[in-house]
Each structure stands twice: as C-alpha cells, then as structure tokens.
Predict the 3D structure of the following.
Amino acid sequence: MWPSRNTKKAGRTRTASNDTSEAAAPAPAAGAAAAAAALDPGLEAFKALIGERRFTCTQCGKCCTGAGEVWVSDAEAANIARHLNLPLARFLALHCHAYSRVEGFRLLRSNMDSETRDCTFLRPDNTCAIHPVRPLQCSTYPWWPELMDDKEWQLEKDTICEGFDHAEAPPTDLHAAAQQLKLATIQEYQKRLAYKPSRKQSKKAAAAAQQQAGSSSSSSRTVKAHGAGQAKAGGSSSSNSDVSWQEKLRKLQGMLDFEG
Ligand code: SF4
Ligand code: SF4
C-alpha cells in the first residue's frame, strides 16, 4: 500500500492550515519548490481541478487532533529544528519516528500526553506551535491532489473539516490555491516514488500483478459477460487502490510533465 497522509480510517487528517491569515503563503519544502519552479507547467490544469471549491478555516483544530500522519521532508525537519533552536538530531529524536518507509521523509510523533494522540505541535488553543515553518502537508491543506476528487472532498467535509464549502468562505483565490495544489502534488509524487514497500507488501503486490495478468489473458467472453468492473474486482482491495493511484499518477505526470 502507498503511504497516505490522509487518514480517514483513523478519523483524522493532520493538516491544519488553522490560521487563514497565511493560507496563501505556504512554506514549501525546498525540493518541492525547486521542482515546481523548474517544471513550471502552468497552473491552468490545477485551477480546473479546484473548480468551484471553497474553503475557510474555523480553527476548530480537528485536522491536527487524534491519531494521524504528518510527513516532513528532511529539509522541512532541518527547518523546523532551526526554528525551535534544537540540534537536528535532538529534534528528530523528540518529534519524529525513527524509521520511515519513505526515503527522505519522516513521520511526526503524536503527543502521547494527549488522550487523543494529537499532533505534537498542536497547542491547547488549537494553533500550531510551528506555524511559520509547518510542513508543506499542513500549509497546502485542503489543496491536495487526492481531495480534488468530488467524493474525497465530500468525505473529508463530512468527517473532518467543517471549513470545506463553508457558507462564510470567501471566493477562492484560484491562483494561490492552484500553486498550493501543484506543490502538494509534486511532494506527494516524490513521496510515492521514494516509498520502499516491506517484503510482505512486495510479495502481495507481485501476487496481485500475477493474478491481474492471468485474468487479463482469460477469454474475452468472460470479460464481456461480467463487464469491466467485475473484471477488475478480481484483485485485492489494496491492488485496486494501487491501480487507482497509478491512474491518478499518470494524469499527474501528464499535468506536471514528469518522467515516471
Ligand atoms: S479541520 Fe478545517 S476548519 Fe478545522 S482547523 Fe482544520 S482546516 Fe481549519
Ligand atoms: S504541524 Fe501544526 S498544522 Fe501540522 S498537524 Fe501539527 S499542529 Fe497541525
């Protein structure tokens, strides 16, 4: 399975841009920002994905609360450590998990003193203790590629963020939002490329690929009889989700002119 920063199963995303005053000024990872500048594919496709979506942050703090995943790149970790006046090694030991399957990225620890295992940087007043240097994952919310899908947007709205399509949300600054979406997309793509599956996951993926190859070489009559949906349903849910991500990545590659 791909690493996910969207943890709906746990009932939470760790994201908060819970200060709207800086919504248009993300603190991008140096690598992602450089990649965005170098690629400069234009923002029109991203604006189209955003469409009519609107958002405002009510500072409810829900997206930073409870068990969830916040990823920081090595560059972001160094930046946050500097901001906190901590040696990098100390910052990593205190605030990050020691091991990550995504090379160049770490997961922030949860605050084990909080009953709900909130983000280690969430303050009691629902503000972020590292707001000026918060991870790109947080500063780009909700302009994430996975949320530009209508169903995902709705699910996030229903389960986590009351600010989606909020009645008092101002008209979306499409240019700023598209820039954030572009940065979030590039970083997500980089994370997925850097993901190292466990041996068990690799074996499962290989078995699913083999199964899929087997089913696609079966008679066309079977496929016609059951339809495309049924033909796909032979794989496990994780292989289906990988297939869906491959499709999404192909689209993103087209938009960003990436070489996959
Ligand atoms: S859940 Fe939404 S409204 Fe609440 S703090 Fe997070 S971004 Fe803001
Ligand atoms: S780093 Fe800040 S914005 Fe991000 S999840 Fe933690 S408290 Fe929320």
Confidence is low (pLDDT under 50) at residues 1-12, 16-29, 36-40, 217-240. The CA atoms of residues 225 and 231 lie 9 Å apart.
